Amino acid sequence: MSYSVREVSAMLGLSTGQIRAWAARGFLTPERDTDGGLRFGFQDLVILRTAGELTAAHIPPRKIRRVLESVREQLPEGRSIAGVRIAADGERVVVRDGTAVWNPESGQSLFDFSIDEIAEKTKPIALAAVREAKAKQEDGLDADAWYELASDLELRDPSEARDAYEKAIALDPSHVDAHVNLGRLFHDEGALDLAAKHYRAALNIDHDHPVAAFNLGVALDDLGRLSDAADAYRRAIELDPDNADAHYNLAGVLERSGDKAGAVRHLTRYRALTR
Length: 275
Prior knowledge:
By secondary structure, this protein is mainly alpha-helical. It has 2 domains: 3-81, Multidrug-efflux Transporter Regulator, Chain: A, Domain 2; 113-274, Serine Threonine Protein Phosphatase 5, Tetratricopeptide repeat, CATH 1.25.40.10. The chain contains 13 helices and 6 strands. The chain has helices at 5-12, 16-24, 42-56, 61-74, 115-135, 143-153, 158-171, 176-188, 192-205, 210-222, 226-239, 244-256, 260-274; strands at 3-4, 31-32, 38-40, 85-89, 92-97, 100-102. The strands form 2 sheets. A 3-stranded antiparallel β-sheet has the order 1-3-2. A 3-stranded antiparallel β-sheet has the order 4-5-6. The radius of gyration is 22 Å and the shape is globular.
């Protein structure tokens, strides 16, 4: 499935000149049609979207080019820069790949100086609270208390957080937010089937839970179950029509499923929501 320069321009809001210029810089892998025109795949669209967002954030073209070159060198062999999130944070550019966050120009990790530092300081307090809660369990600690403890533990000790969420669910199987958060922890660990199980449980409890619907779509997408993922993303969009990420992810699923028109429609909506 490929897209012409004009189609890409309409979807991403880039000029045809900008698109051709980025293609000439070697970051994209366009093909040529029978008339010699450029045709771009979905991975190319991801990179072009990144370049467009950085340009809109007033990052100079030379710096964007330098950042993309650095990211390509820093990623493991076979890992495409289309698979990470590159965004402007004020005047600097940051790269996010899962839980890792770094400055591509210096290569310096940024995670340790923000969330990780806070988590380290709060860990003793959270663990003490869990020990106290376990000691009081026979006295009737309720599901909400276990949920709150789990939320406090997530950043620093995911395994303890998972245990606390499971206790919350054991006490109250209808605790929808515990299911969503537990699903996310399993998702982060790569246990996609378990993640999907808890997202589905959350939706069975609350059919109108937009986060559960979107997260289920991501899990099914990661599992390669494209049809089911598309249904989940559509439900997320039905519940929250302005969910730009749902539109973008659905476009990717539809593109891989051969529905070019659907992919273009949702990419266009994504562009309208993020311009």
